Amino acid sequence: MKRFLLTGVTGQVGHELQRTLAPLGEVIGVSREEMDFAHPERMVGLLETVGPDVVVNAAAYTAVDRAESESELAYAVNAIAPDHLARAAQSHGAAFIHISTDYVFDGRKNTPYRPDDPTSPLSVYGHSKLAGEQAVQQAYRVSGDASYAIFRTAWVCGPHGKGNFVKTMLRLGSDREEIRVVADQVGSPTWAGDLAGAIAQFVPHLGPQTAGIYHYTSSGVASWYDFAIAIFEEARALDFPLAVQRVVPITTADYPTPARRPAYSVLACDKLAAVLGETPPHWRQGLRQLLHHLKQ
User: By the 8 A CB rule, do 218 and 188 touch?
Assistant: First the structure.
């Protein structure tokens, strides 16, 4: 049985990881309130106290637009903190799992991004997450026992943590007859529970032979507009109170935001599927599970 130090336990993925990692050993979870990621140097003492076999870093600064004006904080949480944490974990002989994002890509491809494709972030958030990936890799590159894994994911939604696209659509759909949704950004919606399950499945394979970057999203592809349509269809089937009558497709140019986003960020997940021996469930299946959780 392993001992896990899990950061970001109050977030969407962190909350689910507490559940999926529990059968594998003792999970010691810390939230941002307990571990201030804006002051990452304080983490080293906690790691020494806990003495984990595996550190799982699910903490992140995810306010994509706000990061454009809070770049120092975004880098502190997404880049400097993983650097301190990974170097401390490596020096104590602990393995490291880190969660990253599709936003490390610029979205100019029209085929799924593979883990070894060139990165080119468009936003402060994307740049800070890429810096975090590079810090983790550098921390373990000096070790002969490079036991680490980076999981890039996309469009994550879960019942816990802060707001997400599903929660936003349900909130807007409860009191608006018309909602305008971007239709020219394409990706793969991902249920946090499925991602957490895949990470837990990977833990027994974690080691020098499997070290590297992996992609995990739900199967299938959708635009934000497609996703919104599906949310309302599935929500109506579960008798969610909805006033929405029309979902209108718009372009990214119609809805300007401080941060630029990749137009296409579908991730190729076959590398991880080869290790786990299974492909991810379809995103619509995850959506149904999420809505059942929110309905409870």
Answer: yes
Q: Furthest-apart CA pair in the chain: how many Å?
A: 59
DSSP 1: -
Run of H or E including 54 = strand 54-57
Domain-located, residue 288: no
Give CA angle at 233 (230, 239), nearest 5°. Answer: 140
Residues 123, 69: Cα–Cα separation, whole Å = 11
Beta-bridge partner residues of 95: 54
- Give the model confidence (pLDDT) of 6-44 as tens digits: 999 989 999 999 999 999 999 999 877 666 666 666 677
**Count, residues in the chain:** 296
Domain CATH for 144: 3.40.50.720
CB of 16 within 8 A of CB of 192?
yes
In 3-state terms, what secondary structure has residue 124?
A: helix
What does the alpha-carbon distance between residue 139 and residue 152 come to, in Å, rounded to a whole number? 18
Compute φ and ψ for 62, nearest 5 degrees: -115, 10
Pairing label, strands 212-215, 148-153: parallel
Residue 289 is classified by DSSP as H
pTM: 0.93
**Dihedral (Cα; 268, 227, 278, 160), 10-degree rounding:** 110
Q: How many domains does the chain have?
A: 1
Residue 89 domain boundaries: 2-162+189-220+266-280
Annotated catalytic sites, by residue?
125
